[in-house]
Request: fold
Amino acid sequence: MTQTTFSATRDLIINAPVPEQTRTYKPIPHQQLIDLTLDGIDKAGFKLGKEHYTAAMDGKVANGRFTIQSIADSEMELEVGWQNSYNKSLTLKFAIGTRIIVCQNGCVSGDFGSFKKKHVGDIQMMTPYMMTDFIQTAGDSFRQMQIDRDHMKDVRVTKRTTAELIGRMMIEENFIASTQVNIIRDQLNKPSFDYNAQDDSLWQLYQHTTFAMKELHPTHWMSNHIKAHGFFKQLVNI
Reply:
């Protein structure tokens, strides 16, 4: 049967066999990343909300996402996330984004708070203090994403413009596929959630898009969400 979800437990993530270190490749255990993130959140003085993990290839590829209750408004919470792999398919990357409370959609900003490292050199020397410094930038990132959201709510898009934007997302930007297009179309006709925005707003279309992207393969989840946020944000700034 075709897999429809990549959700994973923490146990599955941490029990995935860690490959041996070589001269040019230094794997970072998923367990270390979990510990770094949780310690960093605590040392930053924030309160952890939910943990969510996705995985593929028996845990060789994994994402971890952690909501922070201390930084939130009535619609969304701050979220810190990372991606990691044991098969060299992904660089280790951390990013700051938000989780929409009503639907658990994820929004990941590429302009505010993302960095990545290759699995080489001194990457294994990362400390909770480095993670704390990263997380402490979260307040500014969250405020910017609030501004982005409010601006998108003010932008109206016609049906024709909506169709054009969906086509660009799939063909030009390549962060959604035909499967996601079908989901977006269904959400436009009958939304599953109330996003506190007009039906013809850019924010509403953004949320339908991230709703359709929930079950992306973990290899693409973070990068495609960063692309999506950049795509919608530039529509406001034109």
Remarks:
- Residues 149-237 form one domain.
- The beta strands are 7-8, 48-56, 61-72, 76-85, 92-100, 106-108, 114-117.
